[in-house]
């Protein structure tokens, strides 16, 4: 069992790594992260085993924190909570930057983040359905995957549409000056109202498009295991 001091040191290293990875990418040397945390590289290895182990711990921490906030929103409609989140969106700069780095980096780590996010989103949507905040779905797993892809795609699109200059230096340090990710959360803030409008009221008034797609899905060769038959709302 780890002591309080060990847990504090581990958390300090992890938090320093999240900040550095978010700012400079995943090629940053371990010694730089160790210096940020005020420890030796050997102590980083002692706590996490390797740089890959450190990144896995960072992935876990960022995902847990991000999904915890989303879960709180869908489990209740307390206006104070939403106002607090909207008034402090800049606190999301770092976790958003980290997730963007991870997604754009690609590979198995990105796929793992994606699949874990889908599973977590399905779980908190179920909690929202139970609390009455979220409408039930004819396909909970499919809806969770769609919303995850849409949300993460929005982050990537917002990032690519912004003023960030291109490229990292060879040593893993970002070549950009200032905050290259702040515009992402600023754009997300500007899209909050249209996002909530679409999520609350929907978009298509005539249900016939949905019914036609359901009829097609009931007879088409399935490409996923989540085929559903038509059920009128």
From TrEMBL:
Family matches, as PROSITE patterns: HTH_TETR_2
Keyword set includes Cytoplasm: no
Protein name: Transcriptional regulator, TetR family
GO molecular function, one term: transcription cis-regulatory region binding
Assigned keywords, A-Z: DNA-binding
Domain HTH tetR-type: 7-66
Native source organism of the sequence: Xylanimonas cellulosilytica (strain DSM 15894 / JCM 12276 / CECT 5975 / KCTC 9989 / LMG 20990 / NBRC 107835 / XIL07)
InterPro entries xrefs: Homeodomain-like_sf, HTH-type_TetR-like_transc_reg, HTH_TetR, Tet_transcr_reg_TetR-rel_C_sf, TetR_C_25
Domain of life: Bacteria
Alphabetized Gene3D superfamilies for the sequence: Tetracycline Repressor, domain 2
């Amino acid at each position: 069992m780890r002591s309080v001091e060990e847990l504090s040191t581990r958390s300090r290293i992890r938090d320093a790594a999240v900040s550095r990875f978010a700012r400079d990418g995943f090629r940053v040397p371990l010694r730089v992260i160790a210096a940020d945390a005020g420890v030796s590289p050997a102590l980083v290895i002692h706590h996490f085993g390797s740089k890959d182990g450190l990144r896995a711990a960072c992935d876990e921490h960022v995902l847990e924190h991000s999904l915890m906030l989303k879960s709180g929103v869908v489990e209740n409609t307390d206006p104070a909570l939403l106002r607090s989140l909207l008034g402090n969106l800049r606190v999301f700069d770092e976790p958003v930057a980290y997730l963007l780095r991870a997604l754009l980096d690609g590979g198995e780590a990105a796929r793992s983040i994606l699949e874990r996010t889908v599973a977590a989103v399905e779980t908190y949507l179920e909690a929202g359905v139970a609390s009455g905040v979220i409408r039930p779905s004819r396909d909970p797993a499919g809806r969770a995957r769609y919303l995850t892809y849409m949300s993460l795609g929005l982050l990537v699109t917002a990032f690519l549409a912004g003023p960030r200059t291109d490229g990292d230096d060879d040593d893993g340090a970002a070549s950009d000056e200032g905050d290259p990710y702040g515009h992402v959360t600023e754009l997300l803030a500007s899209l909050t109202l249209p996002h909530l409008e679409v999520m609350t009221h929907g978009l298509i008034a005539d249900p016939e498009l949905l019914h036609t797609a359901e009829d097609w899905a009931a007879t088409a060769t399935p490409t996923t295991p989540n085929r559903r038959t038509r059920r009128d709302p």
